[in-house]
Amino acid sequence: MISARGLRKSFGDFEAVKGIDVEVRKGEAFGFLGPNGAGKSSTMRMIASVSPVTSGELRIFGMDPATDGPAIRGRLGVCPQEDTLDNELNVFDNLYIYGRYFGIDRATCRDRATELLEFAQITEKAKSKVEDLSGGMKRRLTIARSLINNPDLLLLDEPTTGLDPQARHVLWDQLFRLKQAGVTLVITTHYMDEAEQLCDRLVVMDKGLIAAEGSPRELIDAHSTREVAELRFGVGEHEGLAGKVEDLGERVEVLPDRLLVYSDHGEEVVTAVLDRGLQPIATLVRRSTLEDVFLRLTGRSLAD
Amino acid sequence: MALVTAIPAPLTPVHAARVLVLRNFVVYKSAWKLFLTGFLEPVLYLFSIGIGVGQLIDSFEFHGEQVPYAAFVAPAMLATSAFNGALLDSTFNVFFKLKYEKLYDQMLATPLTTGDIARGEITWGLLRGSVYSAAFLVVMLAMGLVDSWWAVLALPAAILIAFAFSAVCMALTTWMTSWQDFDKITLAQMPLFLFSATFFPVEAFGDGVLRWIVEATPLYRGVVLCRELTTGVVTWESAVSVVYLVVMGIVGLLVVRRRLDALLLT
């Protein structure tokens, strides 16, 4: 579906994407993970065929976006980071008119729009203004709109940012259904749980390069330990205490509010810490997640 | 949910322009009152100046023919109505869609191209100007201000004026960064409206540079074209005006496209 080789993107002197190789196969859910400014959105825009490639090779459905942009876009669904809905049209017309942009005929557009309102669970809002919808509804409408042309490939740029947990679960469920229906998904996200839930395979991007690639499980196995012991001490103490627990795990990560000790046996770490007379305010032993892989690879937490 | 049916064929430029016009039409269906203001303005001018002030003025010569004052002002208002209609959509509305609504970004996620957007929006501006002009022409007919069969060509002439202004104004709008910049549009619109031989003959400017400048401005070309057609005194000046306006429109269209490329396809 997507094949990129040595893909680069520059804006003047600034290089946002510094040569990446990516292969996305039919039917899979593929994720781009990375902190802000890692080059995810630039990459997505190039794939969406609205941003010219600076150098390297990019093929989507085997076509070159530089020459076959409209043909590629005809088979893509794009769900941008911000809800760019048409505020001058009502909810139904947002779907209907958008479908017409694809050259789909009136009757089909009307049927599709009706179906998609159902899918997005906003049928009763069909005649409402877009601005009267809640954040979750707008997001669902944006996603529904991106499906109007029955895309072979759906691009989702941070699909659940800004949604409450309830709305996120509704959305995840819908994305799962699409995946089962054979739609290839490409997702960028800030949320590690989202990536673990949705993605078959993902790449971690940092500073315009790919830092790691694999399934969530593979990445965790390769870049983290089985468990993590989280130790919370008083404000400002973490930096100084790191040295005292360093030898208890494979690695120690200092966060502003806690120490993370990476070890295959988390409970033993906590016991050892207490044996040394240290008194953490709180402790927690958990399994490694993508978040830990992320910290390891990019050296910073996602919050920044 | 129904799955992939057929991949739609790529849109032809004409089809794409139609779809964009459809979008704007749907938006205006519920706001048709806004449409009225642009039409009323030139009609009010015609009544107040053409007919009101016209009572105080004897008829005077236009290209050697005696023309009543109202019949002199009316074609200028016809050109102005096309100008107004085109201006409204291609400046304020385009700016809003480009900067705030991000409407063109949405369209570019579909098979539509920047060329399609340029052509579609300009077509819409052109249509709006044409509707105003057609309505105004009916008013002129009803008031007996049309003196010649040449006047049937006044509508295509008005459409041409709408096209030229729609294209150039949309092009200029792509350089605007804030609403304050629209003062510049008003700054250009007022003198064009007042001094394009709309209310008095161009001879009033004497034979100097000033007259040359006025004759080279686009609205003057439109006014004189409409005036020659509705009064039936057609000269080579009409041909000059047609070529002038066609070139203006095409240049505008090409610039819009390139500017949209530069702004949106980054």
UniProtKB/TrEMBL annotation, chain A:
SUPFAM superfamilies: P-loop containing nucleoside triphosphate hydrolases (SSF52540). GO terms for cellular component: plasma membrane. InterPro entries: AAA+_ATPase, ABC_transporter-like_ATP-bd, ABC_transporter-like_CS, ABC_transporter_ATP-binding, P-loop_NTPase. One of its GO terms (biological process) is response to antibiotic. Keywords: Antibiotic resistance, ATP-binding, Nucleotide-binding, Transport. SMART domains: AAA. PROSITE patterns: ABC_TRANSPORTER_1, ABC_TRANSPORTER_2. It holds the Pfam family ABC_tran. Belongs to the ABC transporter superfamily. This is ABC transporter ATP-binding protein. It comes from Nocardioides zhouii.
Automatic annotation (TrEMBL), chain B:
The chain crosses the membrane at residues 32-57, 69-88, 149-172, 192-214, 234-256. Coiled coil: none annotated. GO terms for cellular component: ATP-binding cassette (ABC) transporter complex. One of its GO terms (biological process) is response to antibiotic. One of its GO terms (molecular function) is ABC-type transporter activity. It is found in: Cell membrane; Membrane. It is a multi-pass membrane protein. Belongs to the ABC-2 integral membrane protein family. This is Transport permease protein. The lineage of its organism: Bacteria, Bacillati, Actinomycetota, Actinomycetes, Propionibacteriales.
